[in-house]
Specification:
Layout lengths: L1 H29 L3 H11 L4 H25 L5 H21 L5 H22 L13 H12 L5 H11 L4 H27 L6 H23 L2 H25 L9
Helix pairs in contact: 1-2, 1-8, 1-9, 2-3, 3-8, 3-9, 4-6, 4-8, 5-7, 5-10, 6-7, 7-8, 7-10, 8-9
Length: 263
Amino acid sequence: MMASNLSWAWAELWPFIAIGFIAQLVDGTIGMGFGVLSNTLLIIIGFPPAVASATVRSAEGFASGVSGISHALRRNVDWPLFARLVIPGIIGGFIGAYLILRVHAQVVRPLLFAYLGALGIYLLWRAPRRPHAYRQLRGATPIGIVGALVDTTGGGCGPIVTGSLLAQGGNPRTIIGTVNAAEFFVTITVLSAFIGTIGLASVTSAMAGLLIGGVVAAPVGAILASRLAPRLLMVLVGAFLLASSIYGILALAIGPIPSFPRF
C-alpha cells in the first residue's frame, strides 16, 4: 500500500517537476523566464490564472534563492549592482502587491509587452555587433522598482531588469547572475504580501513539483550562464523577450490559449 501511494504521489508530481526544471533552467541561464514559463504552462494544463500565479510565486521564492547562491558561487554576481537593485526591488514589490488589488493587470500588460518586444528586437540587433561594452550602468534603482512592480502582475522582474541592463551594454554573465540573486528578495517580498491576502492555499503538490524541478535546475543554469559566450547569451535573451512579447500580444488580442480542465 505504501509503495502504491508513493507511485501515485510521483505520478502527480512529475509534470510539475518537469515544468519547474525547464523554467528554472531558462531563468538561471538567461536571467528571466521562471514566472512567465511556469504561469503559461500551468494555465495551459488547466490551472485558473490566479491559482497558477500564487503557485508559481510559492515555488519561485525557494528556487530563486538556490539560483542566486549558485550564481554567487560561480562569481556571476556584481555585488555593488546587487545592492542598487535589491532595496528598490523590495520597495517595488510591496507597492506592486498593494496596487495589483486596485489596478487591473490588463491595463499594464499591453505596455509591458510592447516594451519587452522593443527590447528583444534591440538585443537581437545588437548581439552580432556589440554584444557587451561593460559600460557604467545607469538607472538601476528605477529599473529595480519598475521590475518589481511589474512582477506582481504575473512575472516580469527578470525580463524588465535583465533586458534593460543588457540594452545599456552590461556584461551578460554578471547581469544575469546579479538579477537572479536580487530576484530572490523581490519574490519573497511579493509572496509575503500575497500570503497576507490569499493565505497558504497555494501550497499544493504543484508547488512542490515546481520547487523540486527548480532547485535541481538552478546550479545548471548558473554554470551555463558563466560558460556561454556573451554574444549567444544576448541572442537568447533577445529571442526570449521577443517571443514573450508576441505571445502576450496575441493572448490579449484573441484570448488565452485554450486550457485542459483537469485541475
